[in-house]
Amino acid sequence: MDENLLHDVLAAARTAGADAAEAVFAQRQSLSVSVRLGELEEVEREESRDVGLRVFVGQRSATVSGSDISAEGRAKLIDRAVAMARLAPEDPYAALAPAERLARGPFRDLDLYDPTEPSAETLEAQAREAEAAARGVEGVTNSDGGSSSWSASTWRLVTSEGFSGLHQASGFGVSASAIAGEGAGMERGGEGRSTRHAADLPSPHSIGAKAGELAVAKLNPRKLDSTTAPVIFENRLAMSLLSPLIGAISGPSIARGTSFLKDRLGQQIFAKGVTLLDDPFRPRGLGSAPFDDEGVACEARALIDDGVLTTWLMNVSSAKQLGLESTGHASRGLAGPSGVSTHNLTLQPGDRDLAGLMADAGTGLLVTSMFGPSLNGNTGDWSVGCSGFWFENGVSTGPVTEITVAGNLIDIYARLVPGSDLELRGASNSPSLLVDALAIAGK
């Protein structure tokens, strides 16, 4: 659907009684192939074209979407949206982004689209190579399979406030999952990577081999006695420790008063020297975009600057409620109200590698797997199930399992020490993180 058709949808919505409106067209193609034990398991292809419409009648609004983009289908969509909006409750904070906050073109080229479209045979060969490499690691006894995927998507947003923007991106991925050991002693290890361009993917062999190595490294774990000790969160999962921070500084959480950080804006949250950047303009970034899902211009900013919390993450609605301006973090699908999300998050590295952090800590726990986190959003009390490796005098003494780590995130963040082993693997990246003492519940 071209831009002119979306403008036609907006004009028809205004004619039908809407005071303001925004229209979105989304098109997606994807292909994924999975194999298991050397046999083709699944080939899945998706092709979709959908249109979404949000209309405002006074302070009432409604959002609808549909896959029938014919003239008749669009007319029904518009009539339904306006009728729903007239029946909706009034919301004093619902609105389109004001004209002065909208992104203006020409937009910078972030190199997010690779026109390469691999065949199913190519993806199958990559999945087979990844799984074969995982199964080839000594100690691997079984496989959960290998997979390879490709996608291409187009998102065009037009609003009655004068915004028009196109976002086009591609995605390529390879993953593998291996099983080591037998019976009750089985352990799993997985590895996967996703990139915007095919050429940026690591080799399927390296991904599969890593999955196998991770599984074997977990064999014969022991249980720990409950204790308090330093805990290091490995860089592969360290961002999971910071994900509650993103929820806690989201505008909707602040507006509801349900955040453990609601009174901490402008205050020291982390130690000096700790900086968390959000960069929407990283070339080929998985979270890159010149504008957010309401058309507001994105900005690179330090969410945490030298340990200080600098901003909330706001869409238009939460910004109005808080008497502030949108920060360009609106995130939405075709239907439903906007939420908020970050772009490319990066916790800046420190000066000690993982071995250095372990040496500094002396004796403690290196967490390499996390599951079942629990968070009290009002207080910051947090716990998570995990497994990993116990170390003494800075040296691993072997894998450990069935552990729960717990603490208060305000206290944890204040004592967090970043390592130097930052790897840019996805849209959120962190080096390994050391916390000098946490409660560890074991046997």
TrEMBL record:
What Pfam families has UniProt attached to this entry? PmbA_TldD_1st, PmbA_TldD_2nd, PmbA_TldD_3rd
- Annotated region Disordered: the residues are 122-150, 186-205
Q: Which residues form the Metalloprotease TldD/E N-terminal domain?
A: 21-85
Segments of skewed composition (Basic and acidic residues): 188-199
Compositionally biased region (Low complexity): 133-150
| Residue stretches making up the Metalloprotease TldD/E central domain | 114-219
Question: Belongs to which family?
Answer: Belongs to the peptidase U62 family.
> This protein is called what?
PmbA protein
Per the UniProt record, the source organism is Caulobacter rhizosphaerae
